[in-house]
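does this look right to u?? 2-phosphoglycolic acid version
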Amino acid sequence: MGTPTLIEVEDAEQFGAVVADYFSESIQQVSNKPTVVLPTGFTPLPFYKEVVERYQNGESYLNKFKYLALDEYLGLPEGDHRLFASWLSREILSPLSILNEDRIIFDSATSDTEGECARIEKAIEEKGRIDLAIIGLGSNGHIGFNEPGSHQDSKTRKIKLTLETREANSEYWGSLEDVPTHAMTLGIGTLKKAKKTLLMVLGKHKARILKDTLSKPVCVDIPSTYLQNQEHVTIIGDRDAFSEME
Ligand code: PGA
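got this back:
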């Protein structure tokens, strides 16, 4: 059982810089192209902005990684702006010139979700490891789209999104109707394969769930509690996010 390293920052700007430092050190520690999970959401945006700026200012090693998608909506057509693959492409992958062959992503439009999820699991198996999983935290304790009820050994699979998650996601796209009802996600058991994990948390609205993540018994109702048993976990958050911790 590992004890997470907690890093508290002042504001979003400092958050972006500290997460970028962690990312940059982590990818340089791995000699052959590391596999890195990156999330969508509002939380990582200051980090992506910072990494892109550093890359444009000459830190060319910042694109020496293979991207592994954390999750994806199900049933959106190619090119849809809501695709998480498109979102990540806009914010970080294209500005860093990450090649398509270095992007392990879900096919949202697949008619065979089981086969699609098995393909992702196989890609991870072939690679042999996830070097770094950078993840956000849902207000209901979800990690990726592992909603409450997700087993601690769950694999990559299709999942029905909770109303709470769909409401939270409607902030990205304008209305609830714009948020798909189902998604595919790396499983908790899959994420446990990560050699290092970085959880990013910003804001007062995440303070309670962050506290529960670290203090409640490990359980399926709060999927993020798996982090208590995970080695090499770092949590970077602002003062608001840490405000309910003793
Ligand atoms: P957020 O989403 O970064 O937009 O808060 C996090 C999540 O739901 O995992």
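The helical segments are 12-29, 45-56, 84-93, 113-127, 163-173, 188-191, 207-215. idk if thats expected tbh
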